Amino acid sequence: MRIKNFILRLFIFIQALVPFTYQSQVHAKEWTPAVETRLNQFLNSTPDLQGAIAGISIRSATDGTILYQHQGDIRLRPASNLKLLTAAAALDVLGMNYTFPTEIYADGQVKKKTLNGNLYIKGKGDPTLMKKDFDKMASKLKKMGIKRIQGDLIGDDSWYDNIRYSKDLPWSDETTYYGAQISALTASPTKDFDAGSVLVEVKPGTKIGDKPSVTVTPETNYVKLLNHSKTAKSESKRKIKIEREHAKNTIVIEGTFPMKTKPVKEWVGVWEPTRFAVTLFNQSLTKHGIKVSGKIKTGMVPDTANILISHQSMPLAELMIPFMKLSNNVHAEMLVKEMGKVVKGEGSWNKGLEVMEAELAKWGVNPKTMVLRDGSGVSHVNLISANQISQLLFSIQKEKWFPSYLRALPIAGEEDKLVGGTLQYRLKNPNLKGKVRAKTGTLSTVSSLSGYVTTKSGSQLVFSIMLNNLLDDEKGKKIEDQIVQLLVMNI
């Protein structure tokens, strides 16, 4: 498996270097008034932009010259294009090789295979912890000769503050995986690394009227399932609703599920991810024959405790792949808090955003012209102009970590999820496939796309497109794709 993983990572790395070879850049000499005219005509004649606001900035990737702008200095909601700022700041502050440890401590002595004291698990911001990682830690404890904990199992999430949601997160996002609570100790259900959530899968029953089968990944009793759904005739319509109750870990499944139809998968954010992680660790301890006699709870590791195990996450350069390709909101917010903790000694949004603003200024981006409220872009209060985003994208090309950054951007038309990411099904035309590496963004009434493009002539451009006040944000994606296609085919 390690060899396969290495080959996959090598393949992704090599793909990331083609066709973007920055040593051979040329200035976009092919940019002509005709291109500008076509862009203006398109913007003025597109019905779905009537009443909306479009901010567009196009630069030469070689010298940063603005070749075209349309309301380029107007502040707009960036949606997940804000992750472009978060990723750059995190790579610069933390470094490509930065890892996030999870530590196991004990505050007692081990005698006759019994730990006479409490066992602690302390999280330090790893968003990629999975059940298999807790199993590995439990296995190591077993090899140390521990079979019983004569004390409590305690989860420590004090590396970050205890504010679980960013300032403007909509209440309706509370139960979703993309609005999951932020904790320094958390767990992910799959290799998409949607930290703080579980994967619920529903399959139709074998007979009409049967309850569909429901499974949860990771398998755990931390969440309770209430299955009120029914299997229906094959020709009936599927109407399945999967939702967690407010401030509880009760997940309700309702509706009808036609026979012989594909399973439905839904990622659901849990309530209190710290306790979720500790519960999973306790399951792993039990699986490996280690019994905890006390309670499962949260608290802080005392100074007198001794460290037994330190588990390390993947390096940040590798973590950038699921973060940016899949547009992971939780990763973004944890990175903000991590920057605050490392630089300011406080794992909070306030301190982390202060660090981000200082970093952005290094690349000619003016934080005084924008409003930053989180790291993911989920807030409708975030504001930044297209010219500021394109300035960032131009300036960071000189940074040593830029290849990791570029590698993490979704690549147009590449159907492998960890290559194409959120662009895997867009811009699939052979003339466009692989020529656009960009971050997508979507909120209600908002769509955005910013990144790098190689044109038909071989010129390389930096671009930012932000569309606000749309009646249909899905139509915004089509508009972005048409603009990008115009750039590729006419330059």
Descriptive report:
It is a single chain. With 491 residues, the chain is an alpha/beta fold. The chain has 3 domains: 12-97 and 317-490, Beta-lactamase, CATH 3.40.710; 101-164 and 272-314, D-tyrosyl-trna(Tyr) Deacylase, Chain: A; 199-265, no CATH class. The chain has 12 helices and 21 strands. It has helices at residues 2-16, 33-45, 83-94, 131-143, 273-287, 316-325, 329-344, 349-361, 386-395, 402-408, 417-420, 473-490, and strands spanning 53-60, 66-70, 101-106, 109-111, 114-116, 119-123, 148-149, 153-156, 197-203, 213-217, 224-227, 230-232, 239-244, 250-258, 264-269, 291-292, 296-298, 306-312, 436-443, 446-454, 460-468. The protein has a 5-stranded antiparallel β-sheet with strand order 2-1-21-20-19, with helices on both faces. Strand 19 and strand 20 form a beta hairpin. Mean pLDDT is 94; it is low at 10-26.
List keywords for this structure.
491 residues, alpha/beta, Beta-lactamase, D-tyrosyl-trna(Tyr) Deacylase, Chain: A, 3 domains, 5-stranded antiparallel β-sheet, 5-stranded mixed β-sheet, 12 helices, 30% helix, 23% strand
Structural class estimated from helices and strands: alpha/beta
Ends distance: 44 Å
Cα gyration radius (Å):
24 Å
* Spatial shape: globular
Major sheet: arrangement of strands: 2-1-21-20-19
Number of H- or I-type helical stretches: 12
Q: Which CATH architecture of the largest domain would you pick?
A: 3-Layer(aba) Sandwich
Largest sheet properties: 5 strands, antiparallel
Arithmetic mean pLDDT = 94
> Percent range for helical residues?
25-40%
Low-confidence stretches at least 5 residues in length (pLDDT < 50)? 10-26
CATH class of the largest domain: Alpha Beta
Identify the CATH homologous superfamily of the largest domain: DD-peptidase/beta-lactamase superfamily
Number of domains: 3
